[in-house]
Amino acid sequence: MAVYLLMLAGILVLFTAFSSHLLSLAVQPRWLIALSVALVVLALAWTGVIVWSFLLVRPPSTDTVGRFLTTALTLALCGLVLIPTVYAARLAYLSRDVVNTLFSSDGQAALAHDPWNGARHVNFLLLGGDAAPGRPGVRTDSVTVASVDTTSGETVLFGLPRNLQRIQLPAGPARDRFPTGFTGDGNADTPGLLNEIFQYAEDHPDLVPGVPKGKRGPTLIKQTVGDILGIPVSYYALIDMKGFAQMIDAIGGVRVTIKQPIVYGKYREGLLPAGTRKLSGEEALWFGRSRTDSDDYVRMGRQKCLLNAVAKQADPMTVLNSFERLAALTKRSISTDIPQQVLPGVVDLAQKMKGTKMRSLSFVPPLVDTANPDWRLIRRKVAEALDEQRRPTARPATANPQKPVAVQSPDQPISLDSTCG
Questions:
Q1: DSSP assignment, residue 391?
Q2: CB atoms < 10 A from the CB of 381, how many?
């Protein structure tokens, strides 16, 4: 009994005082293996104590009722120990499988004291792709860079429209092929779009020599977006739009406030009425993709709003209840180059982001002419937004709730919430 009470006290201390450290351990495969082994050993030992206690105190064989009741109680106690332990071990196994499948191990240990090597900001490129049967290739229609302050966790989202043109590719073979700007498979008079670069790099290995298939697109799009914004892009994550919808279904939908009705569907057969409502995965997908009666720039604002709403509403219990399904969807629908060694730092950064307000700056008209962008203006606005983020007294401009988020105050970062036009 003393050991049991000490164990309960230790678990309570771990989950209250060291919860963030536990999350960091949960993304490290070796700790997940250790957890699985420890759970199995604990369950077997505990079950052995229960069975041995039964053998010591069981009624005599002549007491049929007593034997039946104590045997039933013993089996019930063993079940109470084994079933949760098997479930927890299963979750640990699934977590390890997801980590090993999704995140590479480059063999280099991250700096224990600072995984960001002293950088003030770490920049993640978030891509939304629309690969689907009948539509070969991946078009990155959603391009957003999340710049996170490594000290405070404050985040600015920089959104680039998919139809950005005349893009100068990084120095090297890519720029040698397109010295006057990216044109894709067209000619110099037909500018290519930003959402075509990812797949073009995958189809043309000579643009990123020495990079294996599957990594060419991410490599070139990271360098290109980094050059456009004037900041280094460290990591990327690409999510398939259909997989994103399935993930929303797995967590029970997402609640947003829609200010203006949104028509969707190939033949305008769907409608998301104005008001606060919970969207299914399919509705959320159209919410983030529909351009009917609007445009790319309004859609960009809705996408950022949707990401923010999902991040805030996917509480731990909801995720836990759908963990196995989410794990399978994650492996199938997401790709990233974040290494396993950096994951504890990412978890710590995510903890810092809680309670801070995300701000958004989208480079859309009238701030930027997508057909002939002012690259120096874009870099200056990015630098100003990050400089404002560093000032503790700075306050972001408040978005006007009566206007679509993506086009409100386009020259200033705006606060994000779950109110979407």
A1: -
A2: 22
Exposure of 116 by Cβ count < 10 A (0-12 exposed, 13-18 middle, 19+ buried)?
Answer: middle
Per-residue pLDDT at 404 exceeds 50: no
Determine the angle formed by the axes of helices 64-102 and 323-333, rounding to 10 degrees.
Answer: 20
- What is d(CA 341, CA 103) in angstroms, rounded to the nearest whole number? 9
Q: Rounded distance, CA 232 to CA 376, Å?
A: 16
Would you place residue 405 in the very low, low, confident or very high pLDDT band (cuts 50, 70, 90)? very low
First-to-last C-alpha distance (Å) of the chain: 59
| 295-343 per-position pLDDT tens digit | 777 777 787 778 778 877 776 667 777 888 888 888 888 999 999 888 8
Count Cα atoms within 13 angstroms, Cβ side, for 174: 26
Parallel, antiparallel, or unpaired for β 270-272 and 262-264?
antiparallel
Q: Which two tokens stand for residue 331?
A: 């492996």
Do residues 364 and 164 lie in contact, with contact meaning Cβ atoms separated by under 8 Å?
A: no
- The answer to whether the beta carbons of residues 47 and 84 sit under 8 Å apart is no
What whole-number distance in Å separates Cα of residue 193 and Cα of residue 188? 13
Is the pLDDT higher at 383 or at 304?
383
For residue 234, is it left (φ>0), alpha (ψ between -120 and 50) or beta?
alpha
Alpha carbon separation from 108 to 105, 115, 226, 340 (Å, rounded): 8, 11, 24, 10
Q: What is the pLDDT of residues 199-243, one digit of tens each?
A: 999 999 999 999 998 899 999 999 999 999 999 999 999 988 878
Tokens of 74: 């013993």
**CB within 8 A of 20, min separation 6: which ones?**
347, 348, 351
Ramachandran area for residue 168 (φ above 0: left; ψ -120 to 50: alpha; else beta): beta
What type of residue sits at position 141?
D
pTM over 0.85: no
DSSP 274: S
> Quick one: which H or E segment has residue 14?
helix 2-17
Task: Specify the DSSP element, H or E, that contains 94.
Answer: helix 64-102
Question: CA 215 to CA 106: how far, in whole Å?
Answer: 14
Residue 417 has pLDDT above 60, yes or no: no
Of 39-48, 140-149, 264-273, the range with the lowest mean pLDDT is 264-273
